[in-house]
Amino acid sequence: xxxxxxxxxxxxxxxxxxxxxxxxxxxxxxxxxxxxxxxxxxxxxxxxxxxxxxxxxxxxxxxxxxxxxxxxxxxxxxxxxxxxxxxxxxxxxxxxxxxxxxxxxxxxxxxxxxxxxxxxxxxxxxxxxxxxxxxxxxxxxxxxxxxxxxx
Length: 151
Prior knowledge:
Blueprint: H1 13-29, H2 34-41, H3 45-57, E1 61-63, E2 69-71, H4 73-96, H5 101-111, H6 117-134, H7 138-148
Antiparallel strand pairs: 1-2
Helix pairs in contact: 1-2, 1-4, 2-3, 4-5, 4-6
């Protein structure tokens, strides 16, 4: 892998979503509990417990029974990378392809688990190139939007 990058592909999309959710809850509330994770992901607490136990055994989270769930350093790294992929994909879909924000968010969540770090880096570079050099005026963006809409 390029530049010492570690891929997160060893985890399923569902497990990556658990890490991403734990990170988001910690950012929002300063803590994450099984019940909060279950509510955020719309799953049963028993499902969260199974996933958390697996993630703990795999070195991604720390969880004391009936206590808070915390990310290990590796868990934080993986959660950060997943969120970064999501953010880049969301911006690309919503700002350059003019996909509805709700659709863009949902699709970014699906795609983030499938694309490599190399693909994300290139999408990000393409996004920056277009925004900084080719789509610098409002009329450029309107022309692109019209073109994509078949006008």
